[in-house]
Amino acid sequence: MSVTAQDTGSAGRQIPDRLKSPMQRFLGSWELLLLGVAVAVFILNSFASPYFLDPWNLSDATFNFTEKAMIAFAMALLIISGEIDLSVASIIALASTAMGFAVQMGADTPMLILIGLGVGLACGAFNGALVTGLGLPSIVVTIGTMSLFRGISYIVLGDKAYTGYPSDFAFFGQGYVWWVISFEFLLFALVAIVFAVILHRTNFGRAVYVIGNNPVGALFSGIRVTRVKFALFLLTGLMSGVAAICLTSRLGATRPSIAFGWELEVVTMVVLGGVSILGGSGSIPGVVIAAFVMGMVTFGFGLLNVPGIVMSIFIGLLLIGVIALPRIARRILAKRKA
Amino acid sequence: MILSFLKSREAILAGAILVLVVAIASRFPAFVTPANLANVFNDTAPLIILALGQMVVILTRCIDLSVAANLALTGMVVAMLNTAMPGLPVPLILLLAVSLGALMGLLNGLLVWRLDIPPIVVTLGTMTIYRGIIFVISGGEWINAHEMSDAFKAFPREVVFGLPVLSWIAIVVVLGFVVLIGRTPLGRAFFAVGGNPHAAVYTGINVGQTQCAAYVISGALAGLTGYLWVARYAVAYVDIAGGFELEVVAACVIGGISIAGGVGSVGGALLGALFLGIVKNALPVINISPFWQLAISGSAIIIAVAFNATSSRTKGRVILKKAEHAA
Fold first, then answer.
1. Is A36 part of a structural domain of the chain?
2. CATH number, residue A203
3. Lowest mean pLDDT among A17-26, A110-119, A309-318, B264-273
4. Measured distance CA(B165)–CA(B168) in Å, rounded
5. What value does the CA radius of gyration of chain B take, rounded to a whole number of Å?
6. In sequence order, what are the beta bridge partners of B160?
């Protein structure tokens, strides 16, 4: 954030006369570095605990990140476009509460899915309307809706919990498709592919990058900025709804404190995945690897009986470290050159 | 002069608070007795202190989400010190709490200033780190009332001139901020940095350093509140003041402090905090479940920010009308 007089100088304006080859770009990329971290964590874990390399244990470990990662993909698009949504965990709470309420009214599984997705979409639309319609800063709006959505859950549920979900509803969070591949993991993989295609292979995805880099330029080049942003909020709401269905099905119960604090983990995952918090750059493969890293770290610590809150220190350090280290390295390199 | 005051955000907010209090009083006159109002103020004092610290951070285009974790960590450290050394005098504990809080604020500030990391990322990270450290140093144990010395617990409750010390500290902090914001170069620098960082550089203000100073102030106040909080409730554990950072940001937003930086006032932050405090204290009185509080403060944030945006939109000075038309 510190601005110096040199910022307006020529430092940032040098454009190389040729592009680096794809191979060169890959070797210098954030994703490769992250992949190295993932492999290192994997190897360290398998040395640290004899239980780590068991396929069923590894399969269980995926539950640590699949739900969060599904939101993180949508959040990545949103952050690339220069906005943020801190209300995702609260959308999970509200969607889960709505599903629990519907169960009490006698809804069946397809109905529950519709309600979960519908509430997610409605919450996303509410955020999107406030941000794009009224032109409000998304960070404040979603801090507000974060309290509002979870607040509604608290009003409905108080200190009680909804249980008694139909038995076939359990498939989404507990079912296995093939051997150790859970339904959630399959869904995570499919969602990752869909989001990678949307962001990296469609006009919509290009528009997201353009908006993040230069919203005014995007507007003048004919991109419907507000419409794209609204769609991204809808998408984030929808994915929160999907995560709500999976999580509710996995836990089999709804409390108003469900998924508490997840918004931070989702944002951490996105930033760790190499998405610039200032918008304009990032990739889906990066977020996928980041999801694996965070899941592996949490799982490995869990096997070593490290309490969850100590893991959160690590996540916090990771969040700051991954941004700070490249900056420190760049500064040292720049000094050496000069 | 009077007309412009009546149109100001502070006046509108004060009016809203007045309407709220009158509405409650019409049904429950006991709510507006001086004793109860003093009680409400005392209850809101921590929020007021933290909201003022948060205000200077937000003024410089940053945000401090680590205040509640800072508060909890400082509170735990002083509580543990007190258990280990019951003889430690309260002024020394206060000094320690403020310094420890300021140190944690300094860490935030240095990461933002020296490493250029976006403030929201820095404070999200330090928030989880500070919370985690509480668990590590306390081993997840609670420190209960009987483990704290009497002097330690009594300080914030001591009644001086009819108000508890906690309330007096909040009043002193408010007065201190009136001077800091209105009468010192640093106070002007906060606005300059938030209003236009590039212009601030050319007027000789070090933007990063000013932001760092804001974080140190916010951290020091969080540390101070940490001791007061733990002493007042006579308990320290990992999750004290969990989620309080959002209430603090909410108080600022409701008080008309622009999240985009450069706009805000001490009065606004004070009124924003009081608004939330009154709502919180009034809910049990008017027989609404406390579970409503979260949704109400969420709605208040959204309404306040929507209101601020629409009122500032019409007020903007048009100095480049022709250029805008050409575009």
1. no
2. 1.10.3470
3. A17-26
4. 5
5. 20
6. B163
Q: How confident is the model at residue A7 (pLDDT cuts 50, 70, 90)?
A: very low
> Choosing among A85, A149, A270, A313, which should be mutated to test the B contact, i.e. which has the most B CBs within 10 A?
A313
pLDDT at A246 (0 to 100):
95
Q: Which residue has the tokens 């955000």?
A: B9
What is the token pair recorded at A72? Answer: 């993180």
- Those residues of chain B that have pLDDT short of 70 are 1-7, 310-327
Contact criterion met (CB < 8 Å) for A320 and B121: yes
For residue B114, give how far its alpha carbon lies from the nearest alpha carbon of chain A (Å).
Answer: 8
In this structure, is residue A42 part of a structural domain? no
Instruction: Output DSSP code: residue A131.
Output: I
% of chain B residues with pLDDT over 70: 92
Q: Tens of pLDDT along B190-226?
A: 999 999 999 999 999 999 999 999 999 999 999 999 9
Mutate to test the interface with B, among A97, A140, A268, A309 (most CBs of B within 10 A): A140
Checking if the pLDDT of A201 tops 50, the result is yes
Continuous segment of H or E residues that includes residue A181? strand A181-182
Q: Which residue carries 């951290």 as its tokens?
A: B219
CA distances from B45 to A135, A241, A285, B74, B217 (A): 33, 38, 47, 17, 17
Looking at CA atoms only, how far is residue B205 from chain A in angstroms? 10
Strands B159-160 and A181-182: unpaired
What ipTM did this prediction achieve?
0.80
DSSP string of B239-293? TTTTTHHHHHHHHHHHTT--TTSS---HHHHHHHHHHHHHHHHHHHHTT--GGGH
Q: Is there a domain that residue A85 lies in?
A: yes
Task: Return the CATH number of the domain spanning residue range B45-309.
Answer: 1.10.3470
Q: Is A267 on the interface with B (CB under 8 A)?
A: yes
Residue span of the structural domain in which A152 resides: 50-306
Q: Residue B159's beta-bridge partner residues?
A: B164
Q: Is residue A334 part of a domain?
A: no
Tens of pLDDT, residue by residue over B141-197, are: 898 888 888 888 888 888 888 899 999 999 999 999 999 999 999 999 999 999 999
- Domain locations in chain B as residue ranges: 45-309
